[in-house]
Amino acid sequence: GAGVSQSPSNKVTEKGKDVELRCDPISGHTALYWYRQSLGQGLEFLIYFQGNSAPDKSGLPSDRFSAERTGGSVSTLTIQRTQQEDSAVYLCASSPRTALGVGYTFGSGTRLTVV
Amino acid sequence: GQQLNQSPQSMFIQEGEDVSMNCTSSSIFNTWLWYKQDPGEGPVLLIALYKAGELTSNGRLTAQFGITRKDSFLNISASIPSDVGIYFCAGRSGGTSYGKLTFGQGTILTVHP
After folding, report:
1. Which residue among A56, B45, B52, B104 has the highest number of C-beta atoms inside a 10 angstrom radius?
2. Chain B, 58-97: which have a CB under 8 Å from a chain A CB?
3. Within 13 Å, how many C-alpha atoms sit on residue B14's CB side?
4. What is the pLDDT of residues A18-28, one digit of tens each?
């Protein structure tokens, strides 16, 4: 597609349930990123994938969080045993490369509410 | 880890006024970026800065990459109602974390017509 597509746009889940968030990057973009935006806060880095390299998972807040990127395209962020503090907007972005001068293109995000 | 302090946190201005916001960092960045986020949308890149001292304009927007590489500012001239939104600075460092951005907390801009 023309932009980064995220689904669902909104998700309400009960505490303790698992959730999966999906990201379709721009076709041909080799780098894909997940960020989390809590209310009134900046964007917090979670994980990034670059081509076939091992992902940088240094921002994942706990082992309840994991992400996959299949076939170098679609990515899924999974949160297990959700907690109320996981409530946030989860933003995905992609870029054609991580080289100098190329900013991200962000999706519109998935707003996750844990009740 | 790296932190960016962005100020002010919010601004309420009249249409036509100029706006200035800035970011400071505890560590050096190789690239500074400024993004704008509209409600319900992801951030959109406004300006990218690649060299210390660089001053770059994009229409009514002007941004500078500080000489120390630890700060940047964004100016918006002659504000209009559609400038409303959240503005974020972001820095990119080198090395193995090259693709990762560190974001400021954001400046919420409100423009009164």
Report:
1. B104
2. 88, 90, 96-97
3. 2
4. 999 999 999 98
Q: Which tokens belong to B93? A: 């460092």
The b-or-e profile of A73-97 (16+ CB within 10 A means b, else e) is bebebebeebeeebbbbbbbbbbee
For an interface test with B, the pick among A24, A33, A60, A104 (most B C-beta atoms closer than 10 Å) comes out as A104
Predicted confidence band at A98 (pLDDT cuts at 50, 70, 90)? low
Q: For residues A45 and A93, is the Cβ–Cβ distance under 8 A? A: no
> Which of B43, B100, B104 is nearest residue A48 as measured by Cβ atoms?
B100
pLDDT, mean over chain A: 91
Both tokens assigned to B9: 């946190």
Size of chain A, expressed as the number of residues it contains = 115
Give the residue from B24, B22, B20, B48 showing the smallest Cα distance to B34.
B48
